[in-house]
Design brief:
The protein has 496 residues and is mostly beta strands. Among the domains are: 148 residues, no CATH class; 105 residues, no CATH class. It is built from three helices and 38 strands. The strands form eight sheets. Strands 1, 2, 3, 4, 5, 13, 14, 15, 16, 17, 29, 30 and 38 form a 13-stranded antiparallel β-sheet that branches. A five-stranded mixed β-barrel has the order 18-19-24-21-20. A hairpin with a 7-residue loop joins strand 18 and strand 19. The chain is globular and about 70 Å long.
Length: 496
């Protein structure tokens, strides 16, 4: 309950990635990472009451999951409770509402890994668009069955289509029960820094990269990563500034905190790639948009109704060109001296500022000594292993056309896209099998992915005929089984 044990749940996203494996995710060559730094103690740390709950790769490499509040016996994370105010509020979240105005939050148990059902008094949090109460804390009050639940969307408060056996009404809890935090800036002056929130008990974590005293966003300057101060907007293909839908607008989805602080984008980013070198062109963002149009599938260009666009979406015209030459470089160093490290952004003195986020959908954040990134997934015994992106085991189903390696069309060959900008000849080195469990998926077997360059065949109706290789694709067959113990281990730990 309360968010503990979520590292195992992260494996759900990892296993789902196998459905995309035929597209050869993760084919890019890993950038060269400088030698290891000692640990992640400059990125986050425990206090007297809040204890860091993290994934531990050993030898100083730890990725923060959340904090454990020893007084309230729940996990929490620092969030903006009101504009400019921070508290460590429960990680369990109420995402539904009991009323058609979306004013009464309700809690539904989504956690498949919870060993026990929720009970009255369980602490949860809920977000709100109100600037004086962006996130509030609640406790469970009464379990209700057969209730219609609602969701807050850009189109208003609408009934949920998914039905649940029960939902809990909530009682608002005072923020004084929770650790309060304050913001500061960490890192050597004159370059890349990070915003840091520190609890009144001494616990801390870095939140966002900073440059010139304001949040910054990664941009590419002739292949080099820089951190450009201010918020960016991206020119898209969905919104336009005229009834002909010919001049695209740039957009930015603001967080509630950014909207409440009155922040707006200061530049528009457009990325190009030439000879495998990425470069961003920047232009000033001009917020003078009066009317917005969007192109329908039928080819019509229609005015966008304000009721269908979130208040957090902002629109911009692109103005004069900007330069990113003054933006500080984004240094990266491998943190941890063991089998697993974390590629962390550093300040100009090499001090780690930010570590990768283990909550990402496909958290391939760890850097083994081989340089190929890997992500955590449990085996059937619950041991977490760090496994690179892998290919799904080939399975013949009705209607499979191939490709096959034999003239009888019985031995499937797996294809993977060849990244022409990568020097890797083996983008996905393994085939893996997983099993569905109560908490998601578990790794059961792994096999070497052996490159295949022999003849190819396809099934056409009832005939098995020769086939030509697809352009920019590599082919693999299943090789020898790999001992799961050969993959580096991760542990989920809470400091004492």
């Amino acid at each position: 309950m309360g968010g503990r044990g979520r590292a195992v749940g992260i494996a759900i996203g990892w296993a789902c990635l196998q459905a995309l494996a035929l597209s050869a995710c993760g084919g890019k060559a890993q950038p060269e990472i400088p030698p290891a730094q000692t640990d992640t103690s400059t990125v986050f740390g425990s206090g007297t009451r809040l204890k860091a709950h993290s994934l531990d790769g050993g030898s100083g490499a730890r990725a923060l999951l959340d904090f454990y509040d020893t007084e309230l016996n729940t996990t929490c994370q620092f969030v903006e409770s009101a504009s400019g105010q921070w508290h460590c509020l429960p990680t369990a979240q109420a995402r539904a509402y009991l009323d058609a105005d979306c004013r009464e939050p309700a809690y539904v148990e989504f956690d498949q890994c919870s060993a026990d059902p929720p009970l009255p008094g369980l602490l949860v949090s809920a977000s709100s668009p109100e600037c004086d109460a962006l996130t509030r804390a609640y406790s469970l009050a009464e379990e209700r069955t057969g209730s219609t639940l609602y969701s807050r969307t850009s189109e208003g408060c609408i009934p949920q289509t998914t039905t649940y056996e029960s939902a809990w009404s909530l009682v608002l809890e005072p923020l004084t029960r929770f650790v309060q935090g304050s913001l500061s800036v960490f890192g050597a002056a004159g370059g890349l820094q990070a915003s840091r929130v520190t609890g009144d008990d001494g616990a801390y974590r870095n939140f966002q990269l900073m440059a010139d005293g304001q949040p910054c966003v990664e941009v590419m300057l002739r292949g080099e990563r820089r951190c450009m101060p201010g918020l960016s907007a991206v020119e898209g293909r969905f919104y336009f500034d005229g009834a002909s839908c010919e001049s695209p607008l740039a957009t930015r989805m603001l967080t509630d905190g950014q909207r409440c602080a009155g922040q707006r984008s200061s530049y528009v980013v457009q990325r190009t790639q030439e000879n495998c070198v990425e470069n961003d062109s920047l232009r000033t963002a001009i917020a003078d948009v009066s009317e917005v149009y969007e192109s329908e599938h039928a080819g019509q260009c229609l005015a966008t109704s304000p009721d269908t666009v979130s208040d957090n979406v902002s629109f911009y015209h692109s103005g004069s060109a900007l330069s990113a030459e003054h933006a500080p470089p984004m240094g990266i160093a491998r943190v941890g001296t063991g089998a697993l490290g974390l590629p962390c952004q550093t300040d100009r003195e090499g001090t780690p500022l930010m570590a990768p986020d283990p909550h990402l959908l496909f958290p391939q954040i760890w850097q083994p000594e081989s340089g190929r990134k890997c992500g955590s997934i449990p085996d059937l015994n619950g041991t977490l292993h760090c496994v690179p992106w892998s290919l799904a085991m080939p399975t013949i189903v009705a209607g499979s056309s191939g490709p096959f390696s034999d003239a009888g069309c019985t031995q499937l060959v797996t294809s993977a896209f060849r990244d022409t900008c990568s020097g890797e000849s083996l983008p996905d080195p393994y085939f893996t099998e997983t099993a569905k469990t109560r908490c998601g998926y578990a790794l059961t077997h792994a096999y070497r992915a052996e490159p295949y360059s022999g003849p190819l065949y396809e099934q056409h109706d009832t005939a098995c005929v020769p086939a030509s290789p697809w352009k920019d694709h590599l082919y693999f067959v299943v090789g020898a089984e790999v001992d799961l113990a050969s993959f580096p281990a991760l542990t989920e730990t809470t400091e004492r």
